[in-house]
Amino acid sequence: METPNRSQPLSAGVRPLTLDAAGVTLSCLLAEPPDGQPRATLVAVHGGGMRAGYFDGQAHPDLSLLTLGAGLGFTVLALDRPGYGLSAERLPAGQTLAEQAEVLDALMDRFAQRYPTGAGFFLLAHSYGGKLALVTAAHSPRPLALDVSGCGYRYDIEPAELPRVLSRSSWGRNWGPLRLYPPDTFRSLGTLVAPMPVREADEVARWPGIFDDLAPRVRVPLRMTFAEHEAWWLHGERDIAEITARLATAPELRVEHQPDAGHNISLGWAARSYHLRALGFFEECLAALRARRGRPAADDRPVAASPSVTVPRV
Length: 314
Known about the structure:
By secondary structure, the chain is α/β, with parallel strands linked by helices. It has a single domain (15-310), classed as Alpha/Beta hydrolase fold, catalytic domain (Rossmann fold, 3-Layer(aba) Sandwich). The chain is 30% helix and 17% strand. The protein contains 9 helices and 9 strands. Strands 1-2-4-3-5-6-7-8-9 form a 9-stranded mixed sheet, sandwiched between helices. β3, α1 (65-71) and β4 (75-79) form a beta-alpha-beta unit.
């Protein structure tokens, strides 16, 4: 059901939408290609303390993933995760990652019943949303590939310190230098910022163990991006080696660094560059998918043509 949302400014071509999934009503933002026939559908998953509008930044026209993706032939669906937006009243404490993964999988199924999805679903996710995308991919065959930013394996904070850090504003960790963002960024945030539900916050310190468990079950192409000024996660060479070793079953894994960016990449000047790189990755996955479907049925391999790990430095 499409619903008006006058409190949240939206870019041209972006409209609000509500979808019921696994018994939860979620508010979303939707942008479709002009001809209504998407190459694929990109589901954008926000991080902790943000909302779907993170992917439709209003401080500058270059920020919106929704308008960029639709203009390049993708349907882009950005959701308010359970505990945010319309579902916040029913789920004030939020949900665990496992519960949210069930909702996200049901959301994709529900959306596919009502809208053309093209080749299928890609997940583009940020921070806590990246955790959710990885958990979902480990348990669901639906995502064709993942692009995750601002999410790693080990925190750049002692686990015992996480509750204290989360209880503060953590400005520097979330944003980095102010020069990385358009001048109107912090005046335009408006309804994009929301409290992190308590069940999310309670699970944060458990992430390294959760990652250890799920990583061997991620069997789709995956691209991970760390901002130059990322301060939540360890992302040096040894840290990336730990990540890639655990994700050995992914048919393709890329770990990249985004220059001139802070943790909230999609709200900074680097947003367009990051989004174009992600969309380019998805285009490569589409080409590999078409090639795979052109082979004999018995030659049914993962989407990527051959296993590879690339870790470029900038």
